[in-house]
Design a protein that fits this description.
It contains 18 helices and 16 strands. By secondary structure, the chain is of the alpha/beta class. A hairpin with a 5-residue loop joins strand 12 and strand 13. It is globular. The two termini are 29 Å apart. One of its GO terms (biological process) is DNA repair.
Length: 528
């Protein structure tokens, strides 16, 4: 079995058609609703209601969530309706409310006879949907989160769990454009849908792969001042941007606003056509993102000290934790301890918590099983959250720990950290070009990782601020050497010496310097 065959099998691509679809995905415009699991009757009902509202000048509100997916989804649909001359305004639900997403309080901002369209939220908001009915507000729900046994009452529910919220919004917007006699020219919002899809960590396979593969092309040529300014601030060449750069540089800056500040500023940045405004908003996003990094590190350091490694569930809590950062810290705890993690921010009367999990433990099911102990809940099997009264925290902790106690040692075993063994003499340009066909990389389709054993270390030296990283030269059989970079592993310099043999887990990348192209290894792990 070749390296490529192994990689395809690991991604569940075992038939000729699946492989062909993976390497040559169709344009997202050609993907049918049935393939997405979206009810075509619901799309038709939504389009009819929206089109009617546009014709009579009825107010339309896009009700979005405050994370990068929700912000992108709001921008996609707002922009599409704005181009159709709709009387449309965005509304982003604040993080500091007790109920996330569509809420009775949020709906009180709108007048009767308005049309409210949710994006990336609303699929479990029964109380709010019922209040909309009583207030004479027509409601269209578009969402991708796990529903309950049935949908809330609404004029239309456009839902699938296959896409991110921005993906659902994009397909609705695309069908709106198709129904419009104007057949809108210009931007379609695919660049924005790409950001939301990557940010929300949905598997980059199937329709999501199509969205991102074609969306990255749009992103690379995007005329949006906000994206240009954001890329420049992040020291990214927008014309060559990758899914990895979206995930680790653009998306965190958008997310930071919802976590610590006003997510409407992130929305304004995506939608503005004014260069100076884009630059000033980018400065704000950068400052908030730096604050997010500093506070997250402090919280994680505290949480790691509190975590009990022997428990099947990591459960940490503090009145000093910021509710906007608990999800980030929970995710890091899962990476370190490889078990489900719950991080709780304690307020005066209420708590807000995030859970990050493993494939073997369904986070949203565990939270739903808490029943009346929680006030609000939502999410996915791998990432979910809840709000509850502070007095219920001990019972919540006990019940979640009992659910996780059923996990076996096998359930908690880390998956293989690499795809296959590959000696360095097999690393060449032909293989690199084959691996590049697997782009775009992301959740569900990670960059291929390989194991090389007993590699001779020729030389090394620390690089970067505070010597955080390592630059290495490794011997390749029948060749002189190949360079490698090990990010965040500068502390290993004290344990290494030239000439010793090491095992490495690595990916293969292209390095460009002074118009010279060479292959370079990006080392994830060094085993001494």
């Amino acid at each position: 079995m070749t390296v490529i065959d192994i990689l395809l099998k690991k991604r569940g691509l075992t038939t000729a058609k699946a492989v062909a679809d993976f390497f040559s995905p169709v344009s997202p415009e050609k993907i049918g609703l049935k393939q997405l699991g979206i009810d075509s009757k619901m799309i038709a009902a939504a389009i009819k209601l929206i089109s009617g509202a546009i014709k009579i000048g009825r107010p339309i509100y896009i009700y979005g969530d405050f994370d990068a997916d929700g912000i992108s989804a709001t921008a996609v649909l707002w922009e599409a309706l704005h181009r159709l001359k709709a009387k449309v305004m965005p509304y982003i639900s604040p993080r500091n409310e007790s109920v996330r997403g569509l809420s009775v309080k949020g709906l009180s901002s709108f007048k009767a006879k308005s049309l409210v369209i949710t994006v990336d939220n609303g699929i479990t908001s029964f109380e709010a949907a019922e209040s909309a009915q009583k207030a004479g507000i027509d409601l269209i729900i578009t969402d991708h989160h796990q529903p309950k046994d049935n949908f809330p009452p609404a004029a239309a529910v456009v839902h699938t769990t296959q896409l991110a919220g921005a993906g659902v919004a994009w397909f609705l917007a695309n069908h709106l454009r198709g129904e419009s006699s104007s057949h809108l020219e210009g931007e379609t919002g695919l660049d924005l849908a790409t950001i939301g899809t990557i940010a929300d960590m949905v598997p980059l396979l199937g329709a999501n792969r199509s969205l991102v593969k074609f969306g990255l092309i749009k992103l690379q040529t995007s005329p949006r001042p906000g994206l240009k300014a954001l890329a420049q601030a992040a020291v990214i060449d927008l014309a060559k941007i990758t899914s990895h750069q979206v995930s680790f540089t653009l998306a965190p800056r958008l997310n930071a606003m919802g976590r610590l500040a006003d997510s409407l500023d992130a929305l304004r940045l995506l939608c503005t056509t004014d260069q100076k405004r884009a630059e000033s908003l980018t400065i704000k996003l950068n400052e908030v993102n730096q604050l997010r990094q500093d506070q997250t590190l402090a919280m994680f350091t505290d949480a790691r000290q509190k975590a009990r490694e022997k428990s099947q569930l990591i459960f940490v809590q503090s009145a000093d934790y910021h509710e906007g950062l608990v999800g980030l810290v929970a995710g890091r705890l899962v990476e370190v301890f490889h078990r489900p993690a719950v991080v709780v921010a304690i307020g005066e009367k209420h708590i807000k918590a995030s859970m990050r999990s493993l494939k073997s433990f369904d986070a949203i099911k565990a939270i739903r099983d808490l029943g009346d102990l929680v006030l609000e809940r939502g999410g996915h099997p791998m990432a979910a959250g809840f709000t509850a009264e502070a007095k219920n925290l001990p019972k919540i902790k006990t019940q979640l720990e009992a659910a996780a106690a059923k996990l076996t040692a096998q359930d908690l075993q880390p998956e293989a950290a690499y795809d296959c063994e590959l000696s360095l003499d097999q690393v060449n340009w032909d293989l690199f070009k084959e691996l590049e066909k697997f782009q775009p990389f992301g959740f569900g389709n990670p960059a291929p990782l390989f194991l090389a054993k007993k590699v001779k270390l020729l030389s090394f030296y620390p690089v970067g601020q505070d010597s955080k990283h390592l630059k290495l030269a490794l011997q390749v059989p029948n060749l002189k050497s190949i360079t490698a970079i090990a990010f965040g592993q500068g502390q290993l310099a004290a344990k290494l010496k030239p000439g010793q043999l090491i095992d490495i887990i690595y990916s293969i990348e292209q390095n460009s310097w002074n118009n010279h192209q060479s292959l370079e290894l990006k080392i994830k792990e060094i085993k001494i």
